[in-house]
# Entry
Amino acid sequence: MSKIERIKAEMDGLDVLPELLRAAREGWETLHPDHVALLKWYGLYPHNSRDGHFMLRTKVVQGKLTLEQAETMASIAQDFGRGVIDCTTRQCFQIHWIRLENIPEIFARQERVGLTTSGACGDITRNVVGCTLSGLAHDEIVDGYATAQAIHNYFLNNRLYSNLPRKYKISVTGCAQDCARGLINDIALSAAIAGDGTRGFNLRVGGGLSSHPRFARWIDVFVTPEEAPEVVAGMTAIFRDSEENRKARGKARLKFLVDRVGPEALREELERRVGRPLRRGVPKAPGLSGEDHIGVLPQADERYRTVGLVVPVGRLKAEQLFGLVELA
# Structure
C-alpha cells in the first residue's frame, strides 16, 4: 500500500477540515505531517518553500461565474494573494501566497456567493467542466449547465466518492464544438441527438494525458440530461471499487481500468450498477475538435453577442479581474 493510500485509509480527505481550521488558529506548523496531503481535498497545496504559504484552488462549475463571484475572487486575490489570480485549463481559480490564518475569512467570503474549494484537488471528483456559453450559444445542441450542476451537487462532500484511487475529471459539453476537451477527461459527456430526436449526451470514459495519454473511449452509451448524474455515479463507483487501481499511483487513473477490462465489459458492469439496460450511443454526432469560443460571436438570441477573450498563460492581476467585472 502506498503512503497516500495508507493515509486515506486512516482518514477520509473530507474529514481533515477540523484540523485545517485548528491550524488556521494555532499555526500551519501544528498540522500532522501525514495530513498536509489531505488539505488538497479543500483545494490547498503547500508551496515547495514550506514557509507557510499555500496555493488555493476554487471550483467554478462549467466556468460560469456571477459578477458577485468574480468580484469576490478578485478581492481574495487582492487581499491575500499578492494581487494575482490564475484561471486554470479546467475552469478553476488558483491563488498563491495564501496563509492558513486567512482561510476562515476566505471560506466565508466564498460561501456567501456560492463558491467552494471542496474537492478541488485530491483523489476525488474534481470540478465539472463544460461550455461556458451554455444557454447562450447559437449552435448549442443541449444546455449542459443544469447537467453539470446536478453532477457537481451530487458529488460535493459525498463521502461515498471522496476516496477514489486517483483524481477524477468530468466534462459535460452541450455545444457543437465540444469546447470542454471531453476526450482528455475521465468522463466525457458530449452532446448528441438520438434517432427519436431526444437530446442528450454520448458517454466516453478513460481520457487523460500525463505519461500515458489516452483519449476517452467509446462505450456505446447515450444518456439524457436526467439520467446523467446516476450513470456518472455508477461509473465512478466502478472506479472507486477497483482495488487494482490502488496498487500503483502511476497507473491509478480510470484509463488504466479501461485498458484492462475493455469498453464492452465496462459497459456491462455499468448497466449492472445502474440496474437497467442503457440506450446505445449515437454514432452520428458532432465532432470532438474542442474549439474555443474566442472573439465576438452571435448568441441564440440574435440581438446579442458573446465576447470571448484570451488570458495569456491563464494569469490575471486582481485589478484586471475587477476590470472585467466592471465591463460585464
Remarks:
- The chain has nine helices and twelve strands.
- The first helix runs from residue 3 to 10.
